[in-house]
Amino acid sequence: MAANAPGSKTTGRPALKKQTAQSSPKVSKAAQDALNAAREREFRRFWSYILFFTGVLELFITFIRGDGLWRSLHDLNRGLFGLAVFLFAPMMIYVALMIASNTKKNTVVAKCVEGGVLMLLSSGMVQILQVGSVQGGSFFKKLKGLYDDGVELRGGGLASAVLGWPLLAAFKRLGASIIILLIAFTFILLLTDLTLPQLFKLLSRPFVASVEAVRTDRVERVVARQEREGQLGNGDNEMRRRPGLPAPAAMEETVPRGKQRVDFAKFVTDDDKVPEHEVEEIIDNGETIADDIKPSRKKRDLSKAEEVSVEIIEEETPDDSEDREELKKIIEAAVNRKNSPASDNEDKPDLPKVVNINSKGQTTMFEEDEKIPVYVNPPVDVLKYPKKKIDKAIIEAEIQEKSRKLVETLEVYGVKTRITGIFRGPSVTRYELQPAAGVKVAKILSLADDIALNLAALSIRIEAPVPGKPCVGIEVPNDVRDPVSLRELIDSDEYRNAKGKLTFAVGKDIEGKIVVGNIAKMPHLLVAGTTGSGKSVFTNSIIMSVLYHASPEEVKLILIDPKMVEFKLYDRIPHLLIPVVTDPLKAAGALGWAVNEMNKRYKMFEANNVKNLEEFNEMLTAEHSKPVDEIDPMFAKMKLMPQILIVIDEFADLMMAAGSEVEDSVIRLGQLARAAGIHMVIATQSPRKDVITGLIKSNIPSRVSLSVSSNVDSRVIMDQGGAEKLLGNGDLLYKPVGVKTPIRIQSGFADTPEIKSVVEFLKSEHSAEYSADIMAEVEENMPKPKEDKKSGGNSDSEDVIINPDDDLIDQAITVIVSTGNASTSYLQRKLKLGFSRASRIMDQIEEMGIIGPQEGAKPRKINLTEEEWLEMRARR
Question: Which family, according to UniProt (predicted)?
Fold first, then answer.
C-alpha cells in the first residue's frame, strides 16, 4: 500500500537510513518516531519468535531419528548438510537472538542471509577437510553421492556442492581449505558484529594477562626481598636499591605494564567504522556499559581517549528490548519535563533597580539628587503553562488510523499516492503525500470534501504543492487539540533572543516550532477573523509580547477599542501614550495626531541628516554620552524618541463612524510611518472590500487571517482562499511581508486573570504619565459629528458615497460566475453597456477579488463559484 512506502516517517516500513544528523528532533517528529519504533519492534519480535522456535524444532529433528515423516526430515537434514548439520539449529537460535536484540529492522534479512551463507561455508569446509574430494562418475551421481554421504555424516552433504565442490575443483584440497577458512572467518565476524579492533583486543588478552602476571610477581619478589633486608622506607639506604627499580611507593602508584600496554586497536585501521545508528545504540546502552566496567578500569587515566573508547566497545553487550524501552521512556520524560512549569522559587521578579542621578544629569554611585527607577519586565510566573497533556499512545493511534484512511480514500478515487512525511501541529496534522506519475494535482484538490467525509473531519485544507517539496500537503484537524499558552511562547529562546522591541509571539507552526514576528519589519499588520476565531486573543498576545519585551521609554502604545471592553484592562499602564480610546471620533483624532507626529519626526530627521528613527536615536545617544559642557545645546533637552504602536480593534466600526478621516490617516501612516517608528496593527471582524480598501491593502502587506466566513473574505484578507477552512480558537494563517505562502499557526492563549496580573504588576512598579499637549492635539484633530440627514442639514458630500454601478456589479458577477466567461466584451453584450462602463465594472470586480487579473490573451481566472456568490448575496 502507498502508506507503507519507503522513506515514510511514521508508516510501517522503515527508512533505510536513520536521520541521526539532525541535532534536535522536531516535536511533531517524536510521535512519528514512536510509531515507527513500535512497528519495528513488532517486526523484529515476530521474526525472532519464528526463527527461535524453528531452531528448537531443528535441534530435535537433528538428534532424534524418529519414524515416518519425522524420519524423512531427519535424513533430509543430514543429507543436505552432512556433519555440519549440528551447527544449523544453534545458528538459527543465535540469529533469532541477534534480531531480537538489534534495533535495525533491516538486520532480519541481513542476519538470515549471513547465517545461510555461513551454513554453506560450513558444509563446504567439512567436505574439503574431512573427505577432500567428490566421488562419482556423472554430475548427478556426484550429487547423489554427496547426499548419501551426508546421511551417514560423512562430508558436508548436498550443500557442499555450492562452495566446497567448486573450490576443490579449482584449488585442490590445500588451496580450497585456506580459502574457505578465510571466507568462513569473515562471515563469522559479520554475523557476530565483531570488528577488527575488538578481535585484536580479544587475541591480545592472554598475552597481556601473562605479561602482567610476570610483572606483578617480579615486583612482589623485589619488595619482599627489600623488606627482609630492612631497606623498605629507609632513606639512607635508598641508593642501595637495585638500579632501574622504582621506589616502593612509586611501584604502588605506577600503572602496571599491562595497563600501559600497546593498544593494537590504535594501529589497526578499521574500514568498517561504527555507523551513526550503532553509536546511538552505544549511547542508549551506556547505563549497562557503565555498570559492567570493572573497578580497576575505572581508576585508569581517562585522558587517553582512544583507550577508553576501545574499552567501551569491548564491553558492549546488546540490551534486551525491555531495557531499551525503559531507557527511552526516561529520556522522553526528561524532554517533556523541559516545558513543565517552573518551581515556585524560580523566576521571581527582582526588585526595581535604582539609578542615582546627580545635579548635572549624570549617573553617580552616591545616593543624591533624583532617583529614577529602571523598568522591570513583568515576571513570567504570572502566566501559566497548558495543563492538558495528551497521551502519546493516543496520538500514535490517531496518526496511524488517519494515514491509512487517507491513502485508501484517494486510492478508491483512482489517485495513487504514498506518504512521505507527517507533521503534527497543535491543531492539525499535515500528511504529505507524493502522487504517482501521471496524477494531476487538481484531481486531489477536487476530492477535498470526499476526504473530509471519509476522515470524519470538520474540514480539511489542501496545500498543493508544499513549498520546497515534491508533495501535496493535506491538513487534517486533530481529534484532540494541543493547547498553546502564551507562557511557553514568551518563555522560549526564540522570543528572548529576538532583538526588535516590537517582537511578538505569533504561536506554534504545524511542525511544533515557535514562531515570532517583528512588527517593525512588517511594518504594519492586518488581522481578520470572525467571532470565536480568536482575533481578540491574538491582538492581546501582541500587546502582552510588547509589554514583556520593551520598556515605556522604548515603545509607546495607542490602543483603540470601539467595543469598549477588550483593551480596557490596559488602562493606565506606563506604556500608554494616551488613555485607551473607545470613541470612534476620538480614534480618528488619535490617528490624525499620529500623522502630525510622523511629519514632525521627518522634519527633525531632515534637519539632522538622518534617515530613520534608529539613526536619530543613535546620534542622540552619542551626543548625550559626551561631557555636559560639550553637548550641543540643541540636543541637550532632547529625549530619545520611542517607537509608537497603534493597535486598532474592530476597524469596521471606525470606518462606519468616520470612514474618510480614518482611511486617509491609515493610508498616510501605511505609506510613510515606517521610518518614523510608527506602526499599526489593524484588526477587523468583517474583511469586506468597503472596510479594507485597495489602498489600505496595498500599504499593509503583512496579513494574519483567523477563521473567516467565506472564500471571498479569505481572498480579501489573504489574496487567496483557505482561511474559511480554519478551525477557530486561534488557528490562523500568517503571511508576513516577503512570504508568498501563508504559514499555518496556532496562536498562544492568555486568559483575563493572567493579563490582569501583568497589568497590575506594571501599575505597581510604574505609573502612567499622559502628556496634556498630546491629549489636546488629539481633541483638535477629532472630526465633527455628521449632521442628521433628516434634519435637512448640508452634509459633506464625501460622507455619503453612492455608487450608481452597485446593481450592475451584482448583475455582472452573476453573469460571470454562471457562465464562466469573464471578459469586457461579453459583459457589453449581455448587459448592453458601453465599453468604458463595462471596463470600469470589470476593474471593480477584480478589486473585489472575484476575478483574476488580465494575462494577455488568456481568459481571466474566476475565483468564486456560483454557490458561493449566492451565499454571499444572501448574507447581505
Answer: Belongs to the FtsK/SpoIIIE/SftA family.
